[in-house]
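Predict structure. Chain length: 476.
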Amino acid sequence: MGRPVAARRTPARTPLGAGRARRAGRPRRVGAVARAAAALSGATAVARLAAATAVLGLLAAVPGPPAVAAGAPGAYDFTGGARTVTGAATTADAPLLDAGRAYRSALPRDGKLYYRLRLDAASSAYVSATAVPAADSTVSATDGVRVSVRDGHGDSCSYQATLFGTSRSPHPVSAWGRRDAAPGHSLCQGAGTYYVLVERIDASGASPDAWPLELATVTEPALSRTGATTAPGTWDSARPEPVGGRAADRAGGAGFATASPLGQGVWRTGVRPGQTLFYRVPVDWGQQLNVVAELGGAGGSGYVDGALTLSLYNPVRGYVEDAYAGYSGRRASAALAPLPPVDYANRYGFADPVKAMRFAGSYYLVAHLADQTAAGFGAGPYDLTLRVRLGGSATSGPGYAGRSEPRDRFEVTAADRAAAAPAGPFGPSGAAGSAGAAGGSAALRALAVGGIGTGTALLVVLGGWTLVARRRSGAW
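Prediction complete.
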């Protein structure tokens, strides 16, 4: 919208000669008119400044409603352009998965599916499988998905299982398998054919429907020179104070491919029962990630065990850890356990969460509100706050000899940081939410309209004062 233009008063037409005679006979009147016009211009400028100040004051003092991600509970955004493949019951029929690609498949209730990889001797390879049960499915705490990578002889290179846990609410869960080619590993070395096995862990009492499945493959190049082959000895495992400050609105995505970027700060959104929100946090080499999720209070009664689930996945969608919070209608929080700074040598650690913090890139925060929360406390949306802290200083990477597939997967770029930063004059860094935060944007538009109305009122008042002053001095 363009700058408002002040209304001009148009005098009645008079004969040209009469106008000249009037101007010649009343030189002081002309000067008074000029001075009055200057006063009106100054008053308009003051009013515009006052209006702008009023708008900023309103925006700072009256926060809008939390942004709510689009999409119904249970919806999942698959990677655009993902190919559809059918997993095989045996390795002989396993379809090939190319490096750096995403695929869609389906996991039967009692299924065990094989897929095939063709790997060189130098690159480490990672495969994640994200299971997406329907919103009306039945799952148990011990139900979930398991992924393993095996060599041509059937020996296991790695495996991981991810469960629904105490939430017992259907939502996307992801597990990863890997072939480590870094120095210090003896299993599954050399070029050749490898196999990925994806399984349901416990389908007893579960719905009979198959789960849609998203598969993603990533390769990591070898280092240009050999580094440490043991995990870092010590790191700060104390839980820091949660980040404070004003919250910025940022609606979450509905899948890994559409995860919304977050940087350090306090972030707010709305979440409905059964809904899962995806965020990505750029974490560079040497940085340490700490996250606390808070669920706002609501009316109602009862208690939901594991109502809020906060999960962390690494840049290849490998599961790192979960945090849970029960809910009784009062504010509740879930905090991730302390994790080490990102370091290439973490892959030599003992605990799985430590091993998962092995490379820089976008780490995924996935927040799920259990479907059964609605029964006792309503359909929402509920206020969800994420407090994200990045400790430590970014350092240079270990020095790769090649590039990853997909490209730049293990880097944090300037564009990543810019996307993750709040935008505008409000929020934890003096910023409001991103342009993608629909709820925040609507609130800003509404408040801006109110601010414009306030500014218009100021213009009318100041204009009235000017008119009275002119009449008293005989300026018209």
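Summary: The CA atoms of residues 458 and 464 lie 10 Å apart.
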